[in-house]
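Let us practice reading a record.
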Amino acid sequence: MNKIQKVAYVSMMVLVLLMPVLVLAALPDPTVPLQGGAVTLAEIEARITQIARFLIIIGVILAVIFIIWGGIMYMFAGGDDTKTTAAKARIMNGIIGAAVILAVGVILQTVAGLIARSFFNT
């Protein structure tokens, strides 16, 4: 790399790093207007619950796909020991993944209840 390329590279990096500052400087009033109300614990609990349910559903679907994929691999192994071992490992990994996902779901639901202070209420 010659000297001109080095200078161009360094100047481009400096420009990229300074871009947020340069863009913010172009705003007439860079203050953020404060609007809306305060975030309540119930809203936080609702978001945590919504995200947890979505991730649990996606994770369980992926675990079931891995279990089915392992079963299909096992059926098509044809007595080959390496293929049956790989298929059994895939099935076991799918089962372990489903168990971990469900355990994380329980933990997230517990944390959401603790944050909203509704866990110990009767």
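A brief commentary: The chain has a mean pLDDT of 82.
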